[in-house]
Amino acid sequence: MENITKICCIGAGYVGGPTMAMIAKKCPHIQVTVVDLNEARIKAWNDEDVNNIPVYEPGLSDVVAEARGRNLFFSTEVDKAIDEAQMIFISVNTPTKTYGAGKGQAADLKWIELCARQIANISKDNKIIVEKSTLPVRTASAIKDILTHTGNGVQFQILSNPEFLAEGTAVEDLDAPDRVLIGGDNTPEGKVAVQALVDIYANWVPKERILTTNVWSSELSKLTANAFLAQRVSSINSLTEICEQTEADINEVAKAIGTDSRIGPKFLKASVGFGGSCFQKDILNLVYIARSYGLQEVADYWEQVIIMNDHQKRRFANQIIKNLYNTVNGKKIAFFGWAFKKDTNDTRESAAIYVADHLLNEQAHISVYDPKVPENQVYADLDYLNTREAEENKAGVQVITDPYEACKGSHAIAVLTEWDEFKGYDWQRIYDNMLKPAKIFDGRNLLDADKLRAIGFQVRSIGTNVLDK
Ligand code: NAD
Ligand code: UDX
């Protein structure tokens, strides 16, 4: 295949938008068109004010501003973009199935298949198809099956190129990735396709960081990387409960084990539980794959990571209830943070949703402040759980745009997201406006507990045994 000059990406979400913006920035000689069925999303990517793009990521609006209209385009004309492109990235959502076989575990590949069929229908010349979405191992064979039975003589090469960016640091991660992984067929045509994609990344990624493997290793490595990362969080979180019983301090334990170079310091931050659209979905998928091959012990092993995470979220909510004298009925509890981590507006699988749901069952009144999450998203997240009527969620939860208002008159503050701005608040002012005893449940070990105690707060951090009475 000749040099790639036209790329299309199907799916303008948290992955498609930022990854393609970075390719466009680094490769001005390549025309990059990102398409999506969601008109509102495309409209937002094209918003005149680049601060209104639909994905909040530090630095992203600058990258988009540089390339948009030059060689980066956002469009709803999916067929046209497929037709024109030599290389097509598929970056659509692959959520956990909510129906039928594999419900609650398997990845729903409905959108992947729709893309493959659309590509098959539209293509008139040879193309390279790149799996950017996270997919179960061996999905490429299904895509190939669909694409090779079109009868129009068009040749397709299928590559796996999973994305490892983390939200909140997407621009940094894309600019200087630890590695780029490209899986392809070990045939002459497969090798040419792999090289075409290597050449694109080589515009800014050092060659030794571009790893090439067979397609299946690449697909499985993505699920595995997420499983390993999530396992670290569940491992440290499992120890928080022991710390709370034994006067060990989880921050000290994390530091002590993290200085062993074989363990390393990252991803050992105790928390209210991991969230995000990837970890749970990908581990459940791994569990499903293992079970489908009859590998019961392997499935059970990884499933425990999710079980521990669910336990941690529930435990946090229960601690709030217990500490508020075993009832939160009618009590106002302020939530600082709703996003699943700082520096993103994404709330998918955020621990805050589950903690709120638990407290609402106990008739608490919750007031939420998050610097980037809009009101309608908070209600949509709660409604999606289907625990109660939408009106009841509206009655039980208020979304407030001023943090000081959010905690005025409250019995307690729960920190659910580690937004930096929380650290700089006027905590004396907050204390003065709360009911006493004023309590803080720090689900991120973000705040300086000693300083807060000096003001008069009762503080409960994760994995420390300081039990304020
Ligand atoms: P997303 O839901 O934000 O975006 C997916 C987009 O695809 C949506 O806007 C949807 O409208 C669009 N879409 C679906 N079917 C389509 C079709 N047939 N034609 C055109 N558009 C279509 O999802 P995301 O977070 O960007 O994730 C995409 C994939 O990347 C998933 O497989 C996910 O597991 C993986 N991934 C996500 C992250 C992350 O941090 N979010 C990181 C690495 C990998
Ligand atoms: C993750 C992977 O890191 C990334 O490589 C992959 O491409 C997508 O999935 P993401 O979910 O965006 O990225 O964020 P990440 O930083 O991994 O955090 C996931 C969750 O774990 C967040 O809720 C975060 O708060 C939590 N976490 C992370 C902890 O509780 N403790 C930690 O030490 C690290």
TrEMBL record:
PANTHER family, alphabetized: UDP-GLUCOSE 6-DEHYDROGENASE, UDP-GLUCOSE DEHYDROGENASE/UDP-MANNAC DEHYDROGENASE
Recorded metabolic or biological pathway in which this protein acts: Nucleotide-sugar biosynthesis; UDP-alpha-D-glucuronate biosynthesis; UDP-alpha-D-glucuronate from UDP-alpha-D-glucose: step 1/1
Species of origin: Mucilaginibacter lappiensis
EC code: 1.1.1.22
UniProt keyword Protease, yes or no: no
UDP-glucose/GDP-mannose dehydrogenase C-terminal domain span: 334-449
SUPFAM superfamilies cross-referenced by the UniProt entry: 6-phosphogluconate dehydrogenase C-terminal domain-like, NAD(P)-binding Rossmann-fold domains, UDP-glucose/GDP-mannose dehydrogenase C-terminal domain
MF annotations from Gene Ontology: UDP-glucose 6-dehydrogenase activity
Cited NCBIfam families: NDP-sugDHase
Keywords attached to this entry: NAD, Oxidoreductase
Name of this protein: UDP-glucose 6-dehydrogenase
